[in-house]
Amino acid sequence: MRVPDNMRFQTAILAQQRAGERVQQGSKVASSGLRVAAPSDDPAAYARMTSLDGQISTLDSRKSSATQAAGDLDLAEGTLSSASSLFDRARELAVQMANGSMTAVQRLDASTEVKGLRDSLLGIANTKGATGYIFGGSKTDTAPFDATGTFQGNDTALRVEIANGTTVRGNASGQDAFTAAAGGKDAFKVLDDFAKALATNNVAGVQSSIDEVEKARAQIVGARADTGLMADRFHSALDVMSQALTSVKTVRADTVEADAPTAYAWLIDAQAAYERSISVARKILSLSTSSTSG
């Protein structure tokens, strides 16, 4: 093979190698659906993809925390609804038993029911959610109310990030709902005093319990309203997060994913170019061989 022919042949071989690399790249893109999978594919697009992946990770983490908080707040609102219903029944009994026509035996029987309501309230106040006890503040691992109804928790807000630089309270207040803090009513004491008045046939005590029971009920209703507002805020934030995630994932897909028809058309062109390069190399080799033979 003469020198010029050898140079032409080497050039053809290099062209064939480059065409083969394009076929390999085209096959990878067509099979994976990804235009960008490594920095070498497109440095700018890869950097953009890395940034978007960070945003997606942040949004996923934020959404998970917000979903958990929303679930516990929904549970707390439903639980407080049960507590207010319990006090509705206690008030009915108070009004009924305050009537002078009621006997000591009837009031004693009613005291048993009130004690049952009080036991139910203890179970309600010690409800557990996904993050632990939902009415204990930051003390989620310990029951907030002991058997005597004494509050053992705190009112520390468990704050959850819902947007960049924005955190909101993500837990209900057991202190506001069930205790005498800030001038409120101790819900357990109200029921204990009411039960005692009934058991001792203390008509005056039963009569005064009507107002006490109503105040405790109103306090719980107020706590339920506050909890519902917090839950609504989280649900609204979750809607925004879901939309943001969809948007960021769409941008990421546009950045790194290949358009299927375009990818396959590119692969076909690369394969055709590869076949042409092989043909050229063969022709050069054939001509060189013929020339040598001649």
Structural description of this entry:
This protein is mainly alpha-helical and 294 residues long. It has two domains: 3-34 and 259-293; 52-253, f41 fragment of flagellin, N-terminal domain (Up-down Bundle). It has helices at 3-32, 43-97, 104-125, 174-178, 187-199, 203-256, 260-293, and strands spanning 128-129, 132-133, 159-163, 166-169. A two-stranded antiparallel ribbon has the order 1-2. A two-stranded antiparallel ribbon has the order 3-4. Helix 2 (43-97) packs antiparallel against helix 6 and helix 5 (187-199) packs antiparallel against helix 6. The longest helix has 55 residues, at 43-97. The model is unreliable at 19-24 and 263-267 (pLDDT under 50).
Mean pLDDT: 85
Biggest β-sheet strands, sense, barrel: 2 strands, antiparallel
Low-confidence stretches: 19-24, 263-267
Overall 3D shape? rod-shaped
As for the CATH topology of the largest domain, it is f41 fragment of flagellin, N-terminal domain
Q: Helical element count?
A: 7
- Largest sheet: spatial strand order: 1-2
Give the helix level as a range of percent: over 70%
Distance between the termini: 12 Å
Radius of gyration: 38 Å
The CATH architecture term of the largest domain is: Up-down Bundle
User: From N to C, what is the helix and strand string?
Assistant: HHHEEEEHHHH
- What is the domain tally? 2
CATH superfamily of the largest domain: f41 fragment of flagellin, N-terminal domain
Number of strands: 4
Percentage of residues in strands: under 5%
Q: What is the CATH C level class of the largest domain, in words?
A: Mainly Alpha
Q: Pairing-aware structural class of the strands and helices?
A: mainly alpha
